[in-house]
Write a structure and sequence with these properties.
Elements: H1 6-44, H2 48-64, H3 68-82, H4 90-113, H5 122-127, E1 139-142, E2 149-153, E3 158-162
Antiparallel strand pairs: 1-2, 2-3
Helix pairs in contact: 1-2, 1-4, 2-3, 3-4
Length: about 170
């Protein structure tokens, strides 16, 4: 299984030139180490709910950037937790740490091989060029299997919560 699905990264870069991809990589590199630490802590303290939440978040954010191996290991950890195997989580948590380090190194390589403009709000500058004056800032919906999702707002150059627009499920009578 490949460490990283380069097609996912190419698709993200195609949405808003490399600036969106670079921003997503930067955010992942900034926030994912805390998730790995939360996974390790929750597993060591046998905190089932905290482990589930941290593993699920890491799995989803990693998959959104094409991290196939790490996402697969995180999914294995989720399945182990669902089957009540939190006491046997130590080996898989160690694999998560290892795969995370390798994935972050690969993202850093992709990040450094992608041209970067020197400014603080890359999407605003990109979208305000003369050929794109009428274009709206980029927004990317990140799909997850949770009822809520997150989206990238080019207008504000940040991630924000995106509430589900699904109507409440009707209950049978």
């Amino acid at each position: 299984m490949p460490l990283i699905d380069a097609g996912v990264l190419r698709n993200i870069a195609a949405l808003a030139k490399p600036t969106l991809l670079n921003s997503m990589i930067d955010l992942y590199l900034q926030h994912s180490p805390g998730l790995v630490e939360a996974i390790e802590t929750a597993a060591a303290k046998m905190q089932s709910a905290a482990l589930s939440q941290a593993v699920h978040t890491l799995k989803s954010s990693t998959a959104n950037l094409g991290g196939t191996r790490l996402a697969t290991v995180a999914k294995e950890c989720e399945l182990l937790w669902r089957e009540g195997g939190i006491t046997q989580a130590a080996p898989i948590v160690a694999r998560i740490r290892k795969e995370h380090q390798e994935f972050c190194a690969a993202l850093t390589d992709k990040r450094s091989s992608t041209p970067r403009k020197r400014h603080t709000e890359p999407l605003k500058e990109t979208m305000n060029t003369s050929e794109n004056k009428a274009a709206a800032p980029a927004t990317v919906l990140v799909v997850d299997d949770d009822p809520g999702a997150r989206c990238w707002s080019g207008r504000h150059s940040k991630w924000r919560a995106f509430a589900s627009s699904r109507p409440p499920t009707a209950r049978p009578r």
